[in-house]
Structures are given as C-alpha cells and as structure tokens.
Amino acid sequence: MKNRMEIEKKRVAGVSVIAAFFLTGFKLVVGLLTGSLGLLSEALHSGLDLVAAIITYFSVRISDKPPDKNHHYGHGKIENFSALIETFLLLITCAWIIYEAVHRLVSGDTRIEVNMFSYFVVLTSIAIDIARSRALYRVARKYNSQALEADALHFSTDIWSSAVVLLGLIMAQFGWFFADSVSALAVAFIVLGVSWRLGKRAADVLLDRSPAPLVSQLELVLNQAQGILRYHDLKVRTSGAENFIEVTIHVQPGLALEQAHAISHLVEKQITHAIPRSFVHVHIEPDEHQPDLAETDPM
Predict the structure, then answer these.
(1) What fold is seen in the domain 212-296?
(2) DSSP of the chain, one letter per residue?
(3) Which one in 5, 70, 272, 287 has a CA-CA gap of 20 to 30 Å to 252?
C-alpha cells in the first residue's frame, strides 16, 4: 500500500512537471511573438508553476520517508513548507503582472498582435490544466497530500486565468487592445486569492494550528465511544498527510489494567478508522467523580 501510494504520488507530480515545462515554453514563445501581456503574464505564471511543480515533485519524494532519529514525527511537513514556497512564488508573479499592466494602461502602449497561435496556446493550456488538475486532486484527496493539493489548486486557477486571457484576446481582435492588460490584471487578482488560501493553510500547519474540522470529527468519535466517562486535553497536529492525536480519557475507577487498555485500544481503532493516517496516543485516568468498582462490589 505504501509503495503504491509513493509511486502514484511521484507519477502524478512528475507528469505535472512535464506539463508545466511544455506550457511555459509555448506561452512564452507566442507571447513574445504577439506582444500580448496577457500571454506573457500567463507564461510567467506557468514558469513559476514549473518551479512549484518541481518543488512538489521532490517534496512528495521526501515527505513519505519514515521517521528517523532526527525527525521523530517523520518528514511530512516538507509538503507544507513547499506549499508556502509556492505562495511566495505566486506573489512574485502578481507583483510583476500588476506593474506591467498598469504601466501599459497608463502609457497607452496596449497594442498587440492577435493571431491563430494566440488562441491555440490558450485553448491548449486550458485543456491540459483541466486534465492535470483533476489528476492531482484525485491523488491529493486519496492520500491527503497538501503539496499535491496546492499544485492542483494552482492549475485549476490557471484554467480561469487562461479563460480571462482568452476573453482579452477576443476583445483585442475587435480593436479593444486595452482588454489584454485588463485581463492580465484579472489574472493577477485571481492568483492573489489563490496565494492567500495556500499561504494561510500552509502557515497554519507549520505553526501547529489546531485543524477545526478534524477536531470536530474527533469529538464526534469520542462522544460515541463506549467505556469513556469523559475526556480532555485533546490535541491535534498535522504534518503533511499525517495526523498526530493525543487525548486523555477517563474510565470507571477500579477497572483491571487489561480492561482499561482494551478501552484505549478500541478508542485508537475507532479514531484511525474515522481519520486514516493518524498516530493516536491515548492516556487513561480513573474518573475521580465515579465510585470505585471495588467499593460498590457487594462481594
């Protein structure tokens, strides 16, 4: 199972690198030939996507390595770190696009040459991005990989930004050349929205922020678990695709060690069934609010 997961993650990440390399070169050549800022902004966006895809490829190779003496919780956070790097790369893209678009609109130098290659590169880009974003999302959700999900989010956003560029080209075809620069600005704002979501999620994981949806799911499991009188000190942290969970449960006082251990083992099993790829540590305490079984035993 582990080997199949690693192979599938590496394969989809590798295909993403190849697709990003092809699209970057294609957009850059056609953008330079036509002078379209929309296409050039898309080429830069794809270029940074290429860097991000390469980072993702190596991060998924490293993240699945088992824990060692220097990394007791494994290497999963390399995925979150790579997602944060992707955020900064996207912000650099936005800064250049906004500067160049505003400069063209203010100077009035917005004329571009629109030809069949302009449309072909954009339509090809949309088709490729649809295919690879679906493939990345599928594997990301299957194996809970934030790095692959970040890549998928990039490329699903590229679909919309390419559609905006396509609209700008169509309007430029009718003489409204300013639409190309406006479409480039729209791309920049789309990318800004993606950057915010990616960066916030990556930072939350790196800072060990408690994931609210996961905590709610755990509380539901614990509230339904048999043998638990109450629980507290529920702590959750994520690292890449892995979840590390700690909780203290209170059981009936006077239980035999084997009975208490059986309850904790059942709780661990229920949690890992509800939330795969989780490492669970359950601490058991007798509940001081309950009478000791030995004191209530009539024998």
Answers:
(1) Alpha-Beta Plaits (3.30.70)
(2) -HHHHHHHHHHHHHHHHHHHHHHHHHHHHHHHHHT-HHHHHHHHHHHHHHHHHHHHHHHHHHHTSPPBTTBTT-STHHHHHHHHHHHHHHHHHHHHHHHHHHHHHHHT-------HHHHHHHHHHHHHHHHHHHHHHHHHHHHT-HHHHHHHHHHHHHHHHHHHHHHHHHHHHTT-THHHHHHHHHHHHHHHHHHHHHHHHHHHHHTT---HHHHHHHHHHHHH-TT-SEEEEEEEEEETTEEEEEEEEEE-TT--HHHHHHHHHHHHHHHHHHSSSEEEEEEEEE-TTS--HHHH---
(3) 272
